[in-house]
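Re-run with default settings, no changes from the original entry. Doing this only to confirm the output is reproducible before filing.
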Amino acid sequence: MNSYATRQPTEPSVAPEEEHGDAEPTMDLTELRRAAEQITANIESVIDGKHDAVRTALVVLLAEGHLLIEDVPGVGKTMLAKSLAKSVDCTVSRIQFTPDLLPSDVTGVSVYNQAERRFEFKPGAIFANIVIGDEINRASPKTQSALLECMEERQVTVDGSTYPLAAPFIVVATQNPVEMEGTYALPEAQRDRFMARIAMGYPDEESELAMLTTRDTSSPLSRIGPVVTSEQLKAMMTTARSVFASTPVKQYAVDLTRATREDRDLRLGASPRATLQLIRAAKALAALDGRDFVLPDDIDALAVPVLGHRLLPTSRALGHHHESAPVIADIVRRIVASTPVPVGSGAIGAGGR
């Protein structure tokens, strides 16, 4: 297990006042946009030509979700995860997932203290604000499952004792396509814990050429640092969470996810958790655009990254395709295009559809 940290946490628990409560800080939407632009500029000084991926990663960060970055080796998955983590002044840890990684390496372990004649809990790498899980699908299913409780309930249970994780808590995981050698497919329950999945893709010719110059002598990661404090990040998250979503907009999100459960080309549709996370992500996207209300356009923009990794196509829909992601993306776009937008106050954006 490798460690990558700006500050390592010293305590495995979180004080009650750090959790969501009445004293949560907020900030003006103008300030939020300014801070978000600073984070984006910081990341894009490292990642060339991937604005959409960076923006989606920022949406997930503000929505307090977990992000899965999936693509072939060498396209910048870990670089994006590291630059996102380095842009915020929070505790950060990195876990290199390998076949021999144990669940206790992730969550922690109880060690017997002979002097005091009692067991002491030694926290694992999961005890950080931002956890980078590199090549998560190279670990065994048993180790992958160690993340389930952490990601959903933001706590760890070891030897009958429960230890809360400090807020904010975000997992940014990378994985190679399941067709690559030495990978284990993430189970459906694990994928459903991630708010969104994005793919980096190969850079365009101009970006790849620029990369040869900017990274010729040193890594650009060494030249960036935090641009937002942990308190500012908490305020951004609280502000994004307070964005208004009207009943018609919520109904639209429900209609989309229910349509995936009934679609003839899908054998597994989106879960109720997906509906909840779609609305949370849409609120964060609206906040990034300087709005205090969600539009159906926000739901449309996030439908593929939020819903796609939770769906399974039928063998007929998959056909001769070797990868399911493009097929599922097309199905989601078709469902979005065919789902009517509910009519109501604040439900239809200026652009419409």
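The radius of gyration is 20 Å. DSSP finds 13 helices and 13 strands in the chain.
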